[in-house]
Amino acid sequence: MILTVTLNAALDVTYRVPRLEPRASHRVREVAERPGGKGLNVARVLAALGHETLVTGFAGGPTGERVRELLTEVTEPGPVGDALVTTGGTTRRTVSVVEESGGPGAGATLFNEPGPQISPAEWERFLDVYGELLAGADAVALCGSLPPGVPVGAYGTLVRTARTAGVPVVLDTDGEPLRRGLAARPDVVKPNAEELAGITGSTEPLHAARLAQRRGAHAVVASLGADGLLALTPDGAWRVTPPRRMAGNPTGAGDSVVAALLSGLAEGLSWPDRLVRATALAAATVRAETAGEFDRAVYEELLPAVTVTRQRAAAASAVG
Amino acid sequence: MILTVTLNAALDVTYRVPRLEPRASHRVREVAERPGGKGLNVARVLAALGHETLVTGFAGGPTGERVRELLTEVTEPGPVGDALVTTGGTTRRTVSVVEESGGPGAGATLFNEPGPQISPAEWERFLDVYGELLAGADAVALCGSLPPGVPVGAYGTLVRTARTAGVPVVLDTDGEPLRRGLAARPDVVKPNAEELAGITGSTEPLHAARLAQRRGAHAVVASLGADGLLALTPDGAWRVTPPRRMAGNPTGAGDSVVAALLSGLAEGLSWPDRLVRATALAAATVRAETAGEFDRAVYEELLPAVTVTRQRAAAASAVG
């Protein structure tokens, strides 16, 4: 079983409008709701890849109920197991306003509600549940932002608990929670170039990845958008690029990278094979009709076409 | 008891953001939720004026549950009674994005979800409930848009049922539902200038009001924004103006006019007294801190200061 943690789960709501006009009234043509928050997205992709998957974190209020209801509807090919801890607060919504006049992915305006206030007792309860779930986990992903009330060093605690339990841990967050999580030595961190720059101060991805690795991550997989991935691992360094630049909606591409890394890790794949899977899956996510889904045909087609290039120390330094 | 009907109830959500930037991601600083839809707003104002009030219409899904939960929290000075009929669909949300950089009321961008699909069986069920509730009602207000599935002639049916039951009926809607409702001869319709123009083709309010009256309304009370009200009634015609133009948020001012007209009708006030109450209450709503609430001190202060001018036929024709 693969476990994903989403402390700040969300109900993702998408509105389609002909065009967004500030300070005007809009008739929404179509409303779509999905379970949201990075860890839930990762879990859906894992389930689609055929892995037994369990989600934990917090859910509460009517939006939390709706998230859990939508999770039970994920059944192709397997369901996502619900081990969310109930909070007295209300799960946040994210509202994404998509303009029909724009191209795919163009013109989305996002409104992110703050998360529910988590009480110290709820956090303790979560730590208990997390410890129990780790006993049956082959790998765990810690994903996204922290809701109010959760200690900023939360990911440090969760990384240490996983490592003590012998469960490989992938961390995908940013800012201070990432900085604090790094120090606890996670197996993998997956920042994008901007997040890497945010915690290291370096805008040169390879240099920034090296700094992040020095701060504690065993492996750093940096997503460089349409340019693919850059990975520094205990087995070597690689650049991985899709065969062509994909036009589409990048929402969820990063979550697909995390899902592929976990999936490859659980199956015992080599680092290059995990990175190929991650790159093909991210590109297939960009190409999908619905944000956060992936196009299986594109994924299958890209798998043999992704280029992996081992970076030697000297050559690697020339990158960027 | 005063009954208000909201066929397309809503959960009104307000987001505060520093500034709305199309195609950017916004961290919402504050989220507020209120029961919404014109009839629910009217009921809250009636309850605040001390009237026993009951709401009906449709509510369903997690948002419908939330609307009902919020209604139970209205207790000052009396509660609003919940006689909403449960639908299998989900009550719509309206999302109002307010920019903190703007002045009060400035800078609100609205997103209105479509309502739930009402089945023929649900509509029949509502008609039964409505008929039963009318037996105990002193007056009834029919407010707002129609959700999908409800016949476009719905308000015609509801007006006829109320008149047969001998219950005075106020209609506040627009477009084709208003046109069809008018033909059933409601006691009062309360369009604004734009809605009047929409159904009559005349942009001159007095002329348009006369046309609306000819089409079936016993009385037409047209709201002219900061200029007050224009009323054509069986007892005469009046122009009513607040003592000064009010700066503030006009959201809910029209609902306060409906509440005041119902309240005055239930108390047996004369037409001029009802119109004074409506004008003072609308102005006090514009001045309130929270959209849709009213400022009681402003209301009390304005009541004796509102100007009512009887319009003679000839003089009336010169207006506009």
TrEMBL record, chains A, B:
This protein's UniProt keywords? ATP-binding, Kinase, Nucleotide-binding, Transferase
Reply yes or no: does the keyword Secreted apply.
Answer: no
Q: Per its UniProt record, what CDD domains does this chain match?
A: FruK_PfkB_like
Protein family: Belongs to the carbohydrate kinase PfkB family.
Q: Please list the residue ranges annotated as the Carbohydrate kinase PfkB domain.
A: 11-292
Instruction: Write down what this protein is called.
Output: 1-phosphofructokinase family hexose kinase
Stored Pfam families: PfkB
PANTHER family referenced in this protein's UniProt entry, alphabetically:
1-PHOSPHOFRUCTOKINASE, 1-PHOSPHOFRUCTOKINASE-RELATED
Task: Write down the InterPro entries for this protein, in alphabetical order.
Answer: Carboh/pur_kinase_PfkB_CS (IPR002173), PfkB_dom (IPR011611), Ribokinase-like (IPR029056), Tagatose/fructose_Pkinase (IPR017583)
Q: Which organism is it from?
A: Streptomyces glaucosporus
Transferase as a keyword of this entry, yes or no, is yes
- Which SUPFAM superfamilies is this protein grouped with? Ribokinase-like (SSF53613)
